[in-house]
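User: tokens in, sequence out, please.
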């Protein structure tokens, strides 16, 4: 579940907008940002690039953040991040206000643990298909991540979203039939990557029909 420590990020309101303003902000080590949601008018702001990057590295993108803006501490979630296509650094951030007493949609990382039975005893290969789960809950009930134990998976078996037990406080939005992880045989893995050995050619006796 969520850590007890509060995650905060300093932001400053900006009055000017436009591409030139955004370029100047980025050159000064700032990331242009927009704050919206909770039936309030959008606010254009900026946050320190280094602080935002450190926050994401340490806590990921699914945690509740308290944005310190104009003397207020506003609970928000990261709605979206725009990345530089070459450097892959954040060049714009969208923050969405959340009400702590209202259920909100979140994307939470899945953390797979354990060694499948099919890997231990049948040389199977674990294939993790799904890495995030879409859920809906109160911000105070938001887990940092969701643990998925794959120990019981044998070759040819899989674990789907519907098999997870998350309690009554969390509503799962991802399709219950979606596969989280599966244990496949080495041959199936090779066939999926095109590395399977070719079938021997069958040579027929006699004249080949045209």
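Assistant: Sequence out:
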């Amino acid at each position: 579940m969520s850590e007890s420590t509060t995650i905060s990020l300093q932001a400053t309101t900006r009055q000017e907008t436009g591409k030139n303003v955004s370029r100047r902000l980025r050159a000064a080590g700032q990331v242009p940002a927009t704050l919206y949601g909770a039936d309030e008018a959008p606010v254009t702001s900026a946050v320190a690039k280094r602080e935002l990057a450190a926050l994401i590295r340490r806590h990921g993108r699914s945690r509740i953040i308290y944005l310190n803006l104009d003397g207020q501490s506003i609970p928000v979630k990261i709605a979206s991040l725009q990345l530089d296509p070459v450097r892959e650094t954040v060049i714009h951030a969208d923050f969405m206000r959340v009400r702590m007493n209202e259920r909100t949609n979140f994307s939470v990382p899945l953390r797979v643990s354990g060694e499948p039975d099919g890997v231990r005893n049948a040389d199977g290969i674990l294939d993790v298909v799904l890495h995030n789960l879409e859920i809906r809950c109160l911000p105070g009930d938001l887990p940092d991540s969701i643990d998925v134990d794959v120990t019981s998976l044998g070759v040819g078996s899989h674990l789907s979203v519907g098999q997870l037990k998350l309690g009554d406080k969390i509503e799962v939005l991802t399709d219950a039939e979606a596969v989280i992880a599966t244990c496949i045989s080495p041959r199936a893995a090779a066939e999926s990557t095109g590395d399977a050995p070719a079938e021997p050619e069958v040579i027929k006796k006699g004249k080949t029909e045209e």
